[in-house]
Amino acid sequence: MNSNIKPFLKWAGGKSQLLGEIIQELPADVKKLKKYVEPFIGAGAVFICFLENDYFEEYIINDINSKLINLYKVIRDKPEDLISEIQELKTKYLNAESEEREKLFYEIRTNFNNSNCSSIKLASYFIFLNKTCFNGLYRENSKGDFNVPFGKYSNPSFFDKEQLMEISRLLNLRNENGELKVKILNKSFNELEEYIDADTFVYCDPPYRPVTVGGFTSYNKSNFNDEAQTLLRDFYKVIDAKGAKIMLSNSDPKNLDEKDNFFDDLYSDFSIKRVYAKRNINSVGSGRGKITELLITNYKDDRGMEVAITEVNTEPKSYLETQSSDLVKIFTKSLLETNRGFNFYVNWERPATIVSQYNIELNTLNALVKNKNYDDDFKKIVKRFPTVINVLPALFALSKDERENLRKGKDVLKVVNIDALEEDLLEYRFNIGEEENLTEEEIDKYLDFTKKIGLKYLFTDLLEKHLVDYLIGCEVGLDSNGRKNRGGLAFELALEPIIVGIAEKYGIEVITQKQFKTLVQKGFDISDDIASRKADFILIKDKTVMNIEANFFSGSGSKPEEIIDSYINRQGDLKNNNIEFALVTDGKKCWGNEEKPQLLKGYRHLNYLLNFNMCKIGMLEEIIRKNFKM
């Protein structure tokens, strides 16, 4: 299951970071259930993911917050009008000075709390306040007034037009009878019993019990305290008795107090699992880190990947239609023992380029091969064709970058002078122009250079044939020596033809080994936290961007254990920039065990995790087609 729609609200307890765990813990027969009920809809990350992937025939979303429910209804019924209102507020905010922005915020907050405006304006106020208030919280005082202070953000991300329109489209989906698939309610959670039966999956995501000192429960004026948590447990038991499958998420009190067994005691009759999640809303920046959260279910599923993976057909199949447990099986049965493709060994463009660049000079210098009158002929050639001097650095295997700096006049070649005390260094220039007239003294200096560095010996004694053959050998040797520097890129080199081939097929631009800030030049908004990061492959078409990273591990050390976590974090950061992410990794010694914890974790949390063979058999193309809507 994949979620391509970014939550349109910043929300305390939002489930974007926990989606992978939630999906992993779904009941085995979830696809057989017809109805989905979510009593505390919030930002709707889980609901939208299910709706986007067409999991159920009917959806009921609910929240006690009437203004939030109004927002959902306006997105469904009047998305263009809402976008117009938000755009007007955005323009007014961004054009205002700091003090005027704060004044505008409190003015809108007052209007929002008074509610004496149209449903569309009220919805636009909701999004505006959510994006500009402190930490994106929603909190009400005892009177029911929204009371979160101004956030002082310089350039908040107010909305994504295409995203809101897509959510509107999903909320307007209809069944065969022409009825809306999604019913939007504004009730207390304990009023939903009549909508729930044995054919229902219920996901409860209530206001969390605080996990930090000073944490808040005042989501609305009713204040969701421990008494309310107990009432929710009672509701949980009622719908459990009706045969519904239920999952409830909440904070883990043990993050604050190891002895706090509140939920362990409250839900002692049910299955409790602790999972890691990164919470984004915290009043102190340092408090935004990994903590455990609870997933409480009324079912136990032996299907889990940690237990066992059943035998599956490892023949080529659809990535998107294959369950993650089966993908693990396919992945581990088709791993590579090496990361080296044919293009790893020699980059033949390198010798071809330099031979083409110095073709005339090389052919001219051929006159010196086996020449017994080397000194005189060298001086004659240089006198008539001074640019032959520029090819000399290539003949003694100077690196490409050093040669380029010499050719462009950015540098001179400096050699320690061991023959004369008055000069410590000898300097040689290799950017000679065609019209330059070198003096006899300068020509003698270069002749002496060829003798001391051994080029005269090369010409008169070692070379048998054309100088081009020798130069090709030099370049191949340099390139082979450079393999140790591009060893880390070997897997990318092997994967590149597959990615480029797919991209060319669908008219997608491919950028390799560049920082994400490259996208700014193409009109994309990229946040500072990812701008300087380097990407193996960036795919671009119209407004869609995808990053594909490639890694090969030849051993089974600790690095792969850490790298999966880093890519999970990378995927989250990229999603915040509307960039899709896929990881291609391989290495039989590293990933050969299908029960490897980090591999299982990768398949729970990453949208797309493939090996080289899975890319070859068409799974990567399928993923690219989906994300670029081909």
Percent of residues in helices comes to 40-55%
- How does the helix and strand content classify structurally? alpha/beta
Q: Looking at this structure, what is the CATH superfamily of the largest domain?
A: Vaccinia Virus protein VP39
CATH class of the largest domain: Alpha Beta
How many separate domains make up the residues?
4
Mean pLDDT rating: 83
Integer-rounded radius of gyration:
33 Å
The major β-sheet equals: 7 strands, mixed
Q: Which topology of the largest domain does CATH recognise?
A: Rossmann fold
Low-confidence stretches: 213-221, 280-289, 302-316, 480-488
Count of alpha/pi helices? 27
Whole-Å distance between the termini?
19 Å
Strands of the widest sheet, in order across it, are 3-2-1-4-5-7-6
- CATH architecture name of the largest domain: 3-Layer(aba) Sandwich
How much of the sequence is in beta strands?
Answer: 5-15%
Net shape: elongated
The total of beta strands comes to: 14
Organism: Clostridium frigidicarnis
Catalytic activity: a 2'-deoxyadenosine in DNA + S-adenosyl-L-methionine = an N(6)-methyl-2'-deoxyadenosine in DNA + S-adenosyl-L-homocysteine + H(+)
Protein name: site-specific DNA-methyltransferase (adenine-specific)
Family: Belongs to the N(4)/N(6)-methyltransferase family.
Helix/strand layout:
Blueprint: H1 19-24, E1 35-38, H2 45-52, E2 58-62, H3 66-77, H4 79-95, H5 98-114, H6 119-132, H7 161-171, E3 182-185, E4 200-204, H8 226-241, E5 245-251, H9 262-266, E6 271-278, E7 290-297, H10 324-332, H11 342-345, H12 349-357, H13 359-365, H14 374-384, H15 392-395, H16 400-407, E8 413-416, E9 425-428, H17 440-453, H18 455-462, H19 467-481, H20 483-486, H21 490-506, E10 509-515, H22 528-531, E11 534-541, E12 544-552, H23 559-575, E13 579-586, H24 588-591, H25 597-605, E14 609-610, H26 612-616, H27 619-627
Parallel strand pairs: 1-2, 1-4, 2-3, 4-5, 12-13, 13-14
Antiparallel strand pairs: 5-7, 6-7, 8-9, 10-11, 11-12
